[in-house]
Specification:
By secondary structure, this protein is an alpha+beta fold. Helix content is 20%, strand content 29%. The chain is built from 15 helices and 48 strands. The strands form 10 sheets. It has a 10-stranded antiparallel beta sheet, with no helix packed on it. Strand 36 and strand 37 form a beta hairpin. Helix 3 runs parallel beside helix 5 and helix 12 packs parallel to helix 13.
Amino acid sequence: MTKQKTILLTLLLALLLPLHAAKRKNLTGICRVIDGHATELNFCSPSIVRVRVFPGTDTNIQKKSYSVLLKPGQNVTEPITEEERDGKLKLSSSMLNATLDLRTGYITFADNKGKELLQATGSLFTPCTHEVDHGKYQVRQGLRLASDEAVYGLGQLRDTLMSHRGQKVEMWNHNTYISIPFFLSGKGYGLYWDNAGRSLFDDTAAETTMSSEVAPFIDYYFLYRDGTADGVIASVRELSGQATLPPLWAMGFWQCRERYKTSDELVGVLDKYRELKIPVDAMVQDWQYWGCDSNWNAMRFMNPYYINKVGDPAWQRYLPGDMKNLKPQQPRIKSPQEMVDYVHRNNGHLMISIWANFGPWTEQYKELNAIGALYPFDTWPMKQGVKVYDAFNPKARDIYWRYLSHLQKMGFDAWWTDSSEPDHFEKPGDDDWMTADGSWRSVKNAFPLVHNKGIYDHQRATKEGNAKRALMMTRSASFGIQHYGTFSWSGDILASWQEMKQQIPSGLNYSLCGIPYWNTDLGGFFYWEFEQDPHNPALQELQTRWMEWGAFMPLMRNHCSSPMVSELYRFGKAGDWCYDAIVKYIRLRYRLLPYTYSSAADCTLHSGTMMRALVMDFANDRHAATLNNEYLFGRNLLVKPVTDPMYTWKDSLKRGHLIYPEVSKAAAPTTVYLPKGTLWYDFWNDQPHAGGKTIQRLCPIDIMPVYVKAGAILPFGPDVQYSTEKPWDDLEVKVYCGANGHFELYEDEGNNYNYERGRYTLIPFDYDEATHTLTIGNRKGAYKGMLTRRHFRITAVTANGKKAEQTVEYTGKKCEVKI
């Protein structure tokens, strides 16, 4: 070829190039400037794309993310291709693609076959007018959703909705309301808006928007794996950290109330439970063990009633107001250390209340004030000089832990990090207060995460902290908090049927944000509607139904506010309908421990979810996906809490009355929808039911509707008084025929971090419907003290009735059982 022909061919190719695709591989992201705004797309993994849109062309602006652990490109294990065609630039992985329109700046996200999932439309920047946020912007991102698309998540919103279409949701945490700027679509994708400040989700007929009051730029993540909700949750955990595994004892029953006022009172309740043979694993010490409000959260036992100093003038100043008239008695337990040791000797565990604020008499207050790490907010308790600490300040977190470590060395097993929103009686100007990381309006929603993470990180840095799993129960939360040994409860809610209805979708949407551990105060917290009387029949019915539901929550914890008392024996005695029903469900909770603990392990090992909204497993059943009062507990148990009174009524004076003279003999019906696509078995009588229909289920006071999915393999543990009383060496295993099934029985040492080093066992169970064969596979893994031999008592449940029990002697080697 001549030199002239070569030049002509080169020019021709240059002219034709814009008409064809220009492809490059092994990139993780691109950046383009459109209308003066730089837009950057980066793959963090094949299922996660980060989008940043800047107010100008400078892309070197820095921004802290409290929740995101994954860096752009960090988990990109395959080629990412770039293709430019017809004014559009597309980045693709094996799972999804993101296409940037180079004329409009719009971004279209699609699956790997090109099916459109979401379009991000216009971005808007408005300079902040607050002096403390100078140089930053109010930001707003438009999104175009399909008209029939349902979206879930956004946290714990205390309403009865499952889908948030047509809603305006404020992102600003407060007691009973946890806002998380993440939504999961029924199409099988998720979007995380990475902003810790005051933000808003707003969905109208014209447009869906995410906006924030302060940001240096727009920053969000699009997540899509395989079109399932489980795939989205797996990507959430990849982005923000895997869920840590709670200790086995935490899966048992917890007893708590506001509040045990002496060590004798607390251990006396444990004694009573043991005497009555009511299973319990955890006792909870609530506030004011430190004394009066001026000494708030001293993290030391300074209340004279706990330290055998009643009547000592040097200690009288610490007495809380409601204890000044208590009759002094010679204490049985004479020190806090004796209390801790006594609970442990009696096979219990202790959680203790710690707050995010300090009274002016405390040493912490003085140290934090000296470094400017106290907020001048009105907080609880009001008008006592109590102030919230600056959890964004690393030195403040160090001070916090230094004082808390005293309680760790005493042997407390878990922390109740109360008021982690934190409590704040807002007034104009508070949002301008500067934390170590910026204005309050720009970071507030990250407070629960940095506060609990600070405790978790400090505890894990100690020898004792690695010997015993860190566990925090907190009243608020942030995206990613599952990675730091923390679970949430739903705050100080009202004891009412309407509140109970609201709690179910609140917990489900919270779980759909990728945070698997959640619970409520069983029965509610404030008992204002029922005379504060555990003998009120109307209250007893509510308490019974809420406790029944609690057996199928990730954690089962009884609680109430003073002057109500909620120990189970307060509601009656053996033979009384309320007492018997509640005890029945606590005992069931313990029998289900092998299933529940294995479900918790599934959250850690396989990014599972314990409270599974029906959209997770039945996305194609449009009716199931909208239900706000049913869910799967683990992957196999369909739960329908009873949320209406059936056997009592309440008069205008809040007094309860029986509709039936003998409640234990009454049986009113409720409706249950069984999702389509599978056969269902009634948990209580093994009766089969076809899916895809609504049925009536009689619900005596001791029956809550629970159904088992065909193919389920359900292990039942021993009848015990606490979680580790008996080994799991003789388990009943029920196989629910009608579909193929799989289950992995998980076991480990129960309360340390050796599981992170692979020291655990998995025993796989697989049922083949075609051959009616249950295969118990080879045991995987090992740990110190594990069982090497055991009995499995196999029972088949079929549409024609049960089949005879077969006993298998299992030594860790694969075996087959014909059913």
